[in-house]
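Weekly structure sync, notes
Attendees: PL, DS, HV (note-taker this week)

Item 1: ATP-binding cassette subfamily B protein
DS walked through the input record. Source organism listed as Microbacterium ginsengiterrae. Sequence as pasted into the shared doc:
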Amino acid sequence: MSSSSSSSTPSSALSTPAALWRLAPFVRPVVWRFVGGAASALVAAVIALMIPIVLEQIVQGPIQDGATQSGAVGLIILGALVVLALGLGEALMVWLRRWFILKPSTEIEYRMRTQLYARLQTLPVAFHDRWQSGQLLSRMMQDIGLIRRWLAFGLILLVVNLLTIIIGTVLLFRWHWLLGTIFILTAIPLWVTGYRFEKRYGRLARQSQDQAGDLATSVEESVHGIRVLKAFGRGKHALRRFSSQAENLRETELSKARAVGTIWFWLDLMPQIAFGLSLMTGIWLISQGAIALPELFAFFAMATVLRWPIESIGFLFSFMLDARTATDRVFDIFSETNSITDPEQPVRIAEPRGELAFEGAHFRYQDAGAAERDLLDGIDLVLRPGETMALVGLTGSGKTTLTTLPARLYDVTGGRVTLDGVDVRDLSLEELRRHIAMAFEDATLFSASVRENVLLGRAELDVHSDEAERVLREALDVAQAGFVDTLPDGVETVIGEEGLSLSGGQRQRLALARAVAAKPRVLVLDDPLSALDVDTEALVEEALRHVLADTTAMIVAHRPSTVALADRVALLERGRITAVGTHSELLRTSAHYRHVISSLEAEEAARTGAIPIITDDDLAAAEEAAGVAASAPPHAAESHDTDTHDIEKEVQS
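Item 1 (cont.): predicted structure, written out as tokens:
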């Protein structure tokens, strides 16, 4: 049974036993070790319950009759040795319980963590868009650790202590039914209080653990954004926000402590009342000749043995509720529906050519309003094998979203995306992502060596082989990432968390090298050169021309120079492809394209220090050129001078 095959019933609707039963698949492989641990704990409890009976025999025999019987001292010593042996036996059983339980509980913790991590890797990007990283981290570390401690300690002791109380209470009737009845009646307030406690404490436990996750998110965001906080002088603001969240968590923990304090009050009070009532009743029974003094002594010895199990129930009960809440939180992730999965019978592409096509593709995010139009509203676009296509459009037109569809980071909500005529949803994810590689504008690197980061997409290679070295060097050369050889350990340098020890341009070049090293048939680049200086960008573009000669590429262009890399350009406008053609063709035929290119040139000029100045005469000339192009026949438009779009005069600042 898979651990992810949890019930679709909401966690809050499950009873506590049903909620905790979901841990059974993890416990099943080591269940006999747990049975051994529980048996050892139960034997220890039974031995403890035997001691009062032995003491009764000692008091009733050699101690009470010692004045008239010879050898009484020897019998007393023998009785003491029996009690000592029982104590040693109890200690041995406690040691056995720990030996049985500790190792398998850590194995369960390991399996839960690895399976949860695997689940996080397979869940779609849409899931990670919704969930805070701190919440995921607290579930991975804090909640699973709590579950392990409960399985190893809380579960066993809760079961054994309940059995001990039941067995001990039955034995109390051995001496007199009235004494046993008093003991049971004084336990009723504990049951009522325990029921109320479960309702309140369960809610507080969930609230506390969720708040702890929010607090972890705040810490993570502050650490990752420390440069921004310092640059804008917002450290105190972040501290106030953190302090407010920490105070909310503190108040919830205090509420939990008050709830636990209430149950402990009753757990301490009722046994004392039971002892007092039993003492008075026992004295009266002795006076009536109903029981003997050794029997009353044994009754109180048994009640003393039962005191710890009774007092521990409150702590173990709250521990169980904490574990139930932790289980709910972990299974919130296991029970998430994965909408992006392998097909039941995946299709294979024997000889991939790299033809990428969007056929009536629609996409809308899951939180989009019902009245909102689709972000991608019927995309029709074909990239020929080996072709480089630039994708341009104004901010918000859907360029970046479109780049996530070929590799199924998101799935289309209508239409389809095909690779060599095969719907990408009919390919296994492993094969699809072997054929399609991506480089993002926001370059993410991992806490690993440069070599491991660049060769991330070549799992079939031994990263230290000669072939891997060749692929690594080729990719670094294309990305103009020769700076890695100046790092302390060269390509073996561990670059640190998210690559923040490198500059933005260095991170971007390594991310580009990673995409190139994957040797895909289709390369999707989301403005991969935005952080590079002009000279480095020119070198990278020249090297990319050779790489892209036999690779199909879709490049989101935010610079005019990136457009120059493309064989054709696709214009994205309000979620639709409104024009496709060469750069010069679109300049002649599309006013919106000229507007987009002018915007890109203005942004580029501002970045490089060249400020565009557009005069009224320039605008009139552009409008006239657009009018001529629109009225001319197709062959005349093709022969039109492509330089009519140069309407800007640059003045070096």
